[in-house]
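User: Fold this one for me? It's L-dopachrome isomerase.
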Amino acid sequence: MPTLNLFTNVPVDAVVASDILKDATKAVAKIIGKPESYVMILLNGGVPIEFGGTEEPAAYGELISIGGLGPSVNGKLSSTLAEILQTKLFLDPSRFYVKFYDVEVIKNKTNLSLSLSLFPPLC
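Assistant: Here's what I get for L-dopachrome isomerase.
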């Protein structure tokens, strides 16, 4: 089950939260290639965050999935999620950071590979 935990220092009212949850669920499902019924999104607004030495609007996310992640998918997810946050919370995409965890289950062993992504890409 893909799970996205989003944290932002921007206060989020119920209507905006609902819009973000719907848009993020659709985006994660489509880009990873899993049914929406398997996607979970958690949104935490008004969380104290300092990013780049300031407390200007910012967001942090962690996406965990069993398969479906990789460099091209992660880049597309980063930019799509940043667009959602920019549209709904007026958050500058350069102040959004997301960490990806691709968990693969192999013969009763769990192998956790970690992939980091920044938006916009630093390279």
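One thing worth pointing out: The mean pLDDT is 88.
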